[in-house]
Specification:
Layout: E1 2-6, E2 17-20, E3 23-28, E4 32-38, E5 46-49, E6 52-57, E7 62-68, E8 76-78, E9 81-84, E10 92-99, E11 107-109, E12 112-115, E13 122-123, E14 129-130, H1 133-137
Parallel strand pairs: 1-4, 2-5, 3-6, 4-7, 5-8, 6-9, 7-10, 8-11, 9-12, 10-13
Antiparallel strand pairs: 13-14
């Protein structure tokens, strides 16, 4: 597994932890490659702001610049650049973002997403893929951008 930043135990409601001003590059040569990983068990109160994530290479079938499994959180994802230039293929390869259950995000705004994947660069949950941010945002209970 290749992680750029694995977000650990955060602060509490109303007092978010900060992940800001990082530059992450991952050479995709593991079973998975995640630039910023926000797991559901410990990632509910984060401000993820002004980060740049770049994934290159390609042996992994699962690559995400940003991945979140959080539920009803107060996280803010703002002003980030997510670039996935991994060369492998597959249903979970070369994705810019996987955001599950985004009902509680305080904000997702002003992010830049780019991938070599021309089909489905966004993944909304465990099985649904979207080819544009607009299509992803049309789902019920998604934050606005």
């Amino acid at each position: 597994m290749g992680y750029g930043i694995y977000l650990g135990t955060p602060s509490s409601s109303g007092n978010n932890s900060l992940c800001a001003n990082n530059s992450v590059q991952i050479q995709n040569a593991a079973s998975v490659a995640y630039g910023i990983d926000q797991p559901s068990t410990n990632g509910n109160f984060w401000d993820i702001i002004h980060n740049t994530v770049y994934i290159s290479g390609g042996t992994s079938s699962s690559t995400f610049c940003y991945r979140s499994f959080t539920f009803n959180d107060e996280s803010r994802i703002l002003n980030n650049v997510f670039i996935n230039a991994a060369t492998n293929t597959g249903s979970s390869a070369n994705q810019t973002a996987q955001i599950n259950n985004a009902t509680g995000f305080a904000a997702i705004d002003n992010n830049c997403y780019w991938t070599v994947n021309t089909g489905t660069p966004f993944r909304g949950d465990y099985v649904n893929f979207y080819n544009t941010w607009a299509a992803f945002m049309l789902l019920p209970a998604r934050p606005t951008q």
